[in-house]
Amino acid sequence: MNEELKRFDEYKATVTRLFPVLPRDLVNGWSIQDADAIVLARFLECYPREPVFVLEVGTFVGTSAFHFACQRRVSEVVSIDTNISLAKLADLVVAKKNQDIAYRDAEDFGPGASPNVGVLDVAEAALACFPEQWQKVRLVTGTTESVHIPAPSNGASLVAFVDGSHGKERVEADLRAIFEHNPYAVAVLHDCVEARTSPAVLTGVAAFVEASSIGYRFRLFKQLDTLSASPNLGVLYPETMAEQLEQAARGLLECPTSALFRVSYLQWRASSGQQNRSRQQNQVRCENRSEARSRKLLPSLRLRGLRDQKTQQAFRLKRRTRRLAKRKATRLSRKVTRLRRKATRFSRKATHRLIANIFYRS
Fold first, then answer.
1. How far apart are CA 216 and CA 219, in angstroms?
2. Looking at domain 2-83+118-254, which of 3.40.190.10, 3.40.50.150, 1.10.10.10, 3.40.50.2000 is its CATH number?
């Protein structure tokens, strides 16, 4: 297993070496993890039918396709993907960083993400560096509904690996397309345990099983004693091959009751986590809106402050002018009063003199 994990890491290192624009943590985070890789290898090793034809839904940069091609019992791998361009992938990561707090610390794309290079081009270039695995792999652009799903040749058994879009409708559509063409197929689904995506994936599985005319069983893969992390995988298979598959994969699958409680717990945890994330996102949105509103209001507030300042200056100037005018009027009034008093005294003296002159003359 250590050798397989070394090859697995070597492939991811090859991807980032050939395309340095891709962040390594994105390649690691959006690919299957080491625990998933080990459990998948064990499952294929004990699969009751041989050879195995793997149909993969969701190639990304080809890490899981490479891992399947490394398995001894796998004869062919057909991997289907919509082939999003690196430029659109970079925009998607930026949008996730802005909307989801969990992606805030995600590493940014390097410069030069081309709109003409898709993820299948990355997978093809990386797989070409491993000729033994590359000859087993065929890459197809499209979805399970838009392309013809090939039938296994040479009596091979179909094992589908569903790791495309994680919405409920998309998962249901992928399972419907797989089992309509191959009623005895087995589907391994990724992201059945992770708290963010598992509710939608499990709801898609439940919707497909409920709408189907034949019976299916769904089980989660259990954590192995040699692993420190739980695999993020579940398996869906028809009732007709349940006994054979469960006996062959004994020790890898959770028992139905514990899986049921575990799924319920995961859904509850995802629901509470989603509520917490929604609260945090709403808080961030409110802070961003308040900041944007403040930025918009800042010029008007400054203008209003200037207006208030000018108004206060004009009021003070007007009050001062009135005070000065009142003082001037008071001084003028006092001066007039003094002049009147002086004139009165002068007229009295003149009158006294006139009377005295008349008296003395007479």
1. 10
2. 3.40.50.150
Model pLDDT for residues 184-225, shown as the tens digit of each residue: 899 999 998 876 777 888 888 888 988 888 889 999 998 888
Q: Position 65: which residue type?
A: A
The angle formed by the CA atoms of residues 194, 197 and 198, to the nearest 5 degrees, is: 65
* pLDDT tens digits, 97-124: 777 655 666 677 777 788 899 999 999 9
- By the 8 A CB rule, do 179 and 99 touch? no
Whose tokens are 């297993």? That residue is 1
**What's the confidence (pLDDT) of residue 125?**
96
Contact in structure between 159 and 44 (CB atoms under 8 Å): yes
**SS3 of the chain:** CHHHHHHHHHHHHHHHHHCCCCCHHHHHHCCCCHHHHHHHHHHHHCCCCCCEEEEEECCCCCHHHHHHHCCCCEEEEEEEECCCEHHHHHHHHHHHHHHCHHHCCCCCCCCCCCCCCEHHHHHHHHHCCCHHHHCCEEEEECCCCCCCCCCCCCCCEEEEEECCCCCHHHHHHHHHHHHHHCCCCEEEEECCCCCCCHHHHHHHHHHHHHHCCCCEEEEEECCCCCCCCCCCEEEEEEHHHHHHHHHHCCCCECCHHHHHHHHHHHHHHHHHHHHHHHHHHHHHHHHHHHHHHHHHHHHHHHHHHHHHHHHHHHHHHHHHHHHHHHHHHHHHHHHHHHHHHHHHHHHHHHHHHHHHHHHHHC
The amino acid sitting at 215 is G
Beta bridge pairs of residue 332 = none
Work out the widest C-alpha separation in the chain, in whole angstroms: 168
